[in-house]
Amino acid sequence: MWGEARVILLFWKMYEVMKMDFEMDEEMISAINKAKEFAEKYFTEELADKMDREEQFPMELLNYSNREGLMDYSNPWKILVTIEELCRKDPGLGISTTVPAFGSEVLMLYGSDMLKEKYLDPVLKGQKIMGLAVTEPGGGSDVASSKTEAKLEGDYYILNGAKMFITNGGIADYFVVLARTSPPPSPDKRHRGMSVFIVESKWEGFKANKIHGKMGVRATNTAELVFENVRVPKENLVGEEGKGFYYIMTFFNISRIYVAAQGLGVAQGILDRLMEHIKKYGPMNSQGEPIENIQFKLAEIATRIEASRGLTYKAASYLFKFNPNPVLTSMAKYYSGETAILASKVAMEIMGLKALNSELERFYRDARILEIWEGTSEIEKLIISRMMLKGGK
Amino acid sequence: MEEEYRILENSVKDFNSKYLDNIVLKIEKEGIPEQVRKAMLEQGFLGMVQLLNGNKVMDKKALSIIIEVLSTSSPSVAMEVFLTNVLFHKLADEQSINEVSQGIKRGTVAFAELMSGYDNENELHMEGEKLIGTKKYVLNSDADLIIASATDGNLYIIKSGFKEIEAHRKLGFRGLKFGKVEFNTKDYVKIGTKEDLVKAYEEAHPFITALAIGIAEGSLMKAIEYSKVRSAFGNLLKDFQPIAFPISMQYNELSMLKNSLYLALSNESETADILFLKMKSIELAKEITKNSIQVHGGYGYIEDYGVEKFYRDIMSLSVLLYNEEEEKKKLASKLYETEAGYI
């Protein structure tokens, strides 16, 4: 009997070991290859440079992406590796191509069937563009300080306020908007009384002012939004009134995984170029190897990227099984962003003048956003510590 | 700091508020306007080198203060002053120095070949009596006079017969032209050898330090001011430890470096000490400019707040004026009194 138990235990342990398999399945490998081919075909240096210089959104890339079925929203793993792979080729074009459904997860999780049919379906089919309107002027990471208001009058909420740094702000057809629907019960409960709505950009009273002069990711479209007595039909309330803050925090658990993937892609793209440079130009020692100072830097960047990938995929594995782990998500987001920025700095230093007059110069500017958007690194660190201290996972 | 230098520092600060602070973005986009150049000439910023009995004399500390303070507002303007005084006047002939000091012409030096990553397919060379070829990565590539070395090992001042044929990407110092220049000319004067260029660069370390310190200071002061007025979660940013602690540490580190630079300039310190100061200043400036963007959040990432340019400028400075591997080797070799750190 004990022998039988040992066999069962052995199989159980084998099963546990199998659960730790780090190999990608064929579906993911095929998504990576597809993204790689797409980037090779359409992300020309000429286009990346032009969109960067002129601060233009590469609308034609969305058409190609739709035509070739690049973004398969039925499998989040495929989305994740696609983001990583496209940002590896070019951050500005990569993010622009993978962000047209930004905010749609809020609808997926909490929207009514009517809202999903009317707004989500065309976005996922690539016919319409969506944006998430949460950040406000002077608000930044402090989401609960939002001042945009929605007052119920008859069958409509009347929306007034402004939003800042909104991705897709000038090109989206629909926005997921966070607004206050009732005053907070007390100063320490400011996150209560907020709700989420779907707002169409063609509605009267809506205005988008494109933000010019970003340091990087200049191919992405960013705008300030103004809502002046915008009449939002009552049925465009997403989920329950007063629960908007929680919906947005849940959304951040999803979007931060994708931002971590952006960081991974940017860092990997920099490492690819750095490796190529070092192999070609050194500087080499008398044995024909790159000098050790450079080898050490290379090793550090490569290790950090691999650690970021481990964190990101682990956090994603929890999220995609509907069991998000905010601690891991925040770790992944802040660490991969930090890694991308460090990689861009080291690559500029090693490659010198060659980097200054190449696409690396753009990567250096692009990477810097990754510790800012979708929750600054400071916010991520607070989430990590507070949840751990509270006994969270 | 001695009184005369304090007065100089204040007068350059006044210059910044009068001529630069309000048009920094315009300078980045359109270059240095004529009225600013005129004011720079009137202040003597482009003629800090005096010719006394045929010798070139300059007050290093004064020039360092001017470069540093200008850099806190417009690193592009500071770089113009650096290029003109520290490199061009150091190497040029008397006539050219006079022309540039009086604003009749603008001069620059092609020095990128001393930095890592330099590549050029058709380097400047002699063909008969003509100087032919190109120089890449030339700052102020629209200058009237260019000092450049040729493959024969000599250094020339070239007075005409050249033009910019390719504009390079501009990560930083966007107020200055930056590109590849093509030469086909007989209008040149031999002014020395490439060794003189190397020597001029080595003697430029204190002023490169001043540029870096100015960039760091300009960026840091913006972060300090912003953290005093911007609130988040019901408190001013300055009240949060993750904001206040790094900023105050950086402020103190920067003050120490600044004082060390003034001391080094007063005492004519050893080259290795100045080299170390330069390295530390560039590294600290990179850290400060990165953090200052972070303190500003999304606003730090857009040009209107004038913070992001420092982040770009310091990396450009690092690539253009700091050959890390070579300079660290020099420090190591000095310590061991033999060649070290080359594997």
Can you tell me about this structure?
- The complex is a heterodimer of chains A (393) and B (343).
- With 393 residues, chain A is an alpha+beta fold.
- Helices cover 55% and strands 14% of the residues of chain A.
- In chain A, strands 1-4-5-8 form a four-stranded mixed sheet. A four-stranded antiparallel sheet of chain A has the order 2-3-7-6, with no helix packed on it.
- In chain A, strand 2 and strand 3 form a beta hairpin.
- The two termini of chain A are 38 Å apart.
- With 343 residues, chain B is of the alpha+beta class.
- In chain B, the strands form four sheets. Chain B has a four-stranded mixed sheet. A four-stranded antiparallel sheet of chain B has the order 4-5-9-8, with no helix packed on it. Chain B has a two-stranded antiparallel sheet with strand order 1-2.
- In chain B, a hairpin with a 2-residue loop joins strand 1 and strand 2.
- In chain B, helix 5 packs across helix 7.
- The longest helix of chain B has 27 residues.
- The chains are: A alpha+beta (393), B alpha+beta (343).
- At the A-B interface, helix 10, helix 11, helix 12, helix 13 and helix 14 of A face strand 11, helix 10, helix 11 and helix 12 of B.
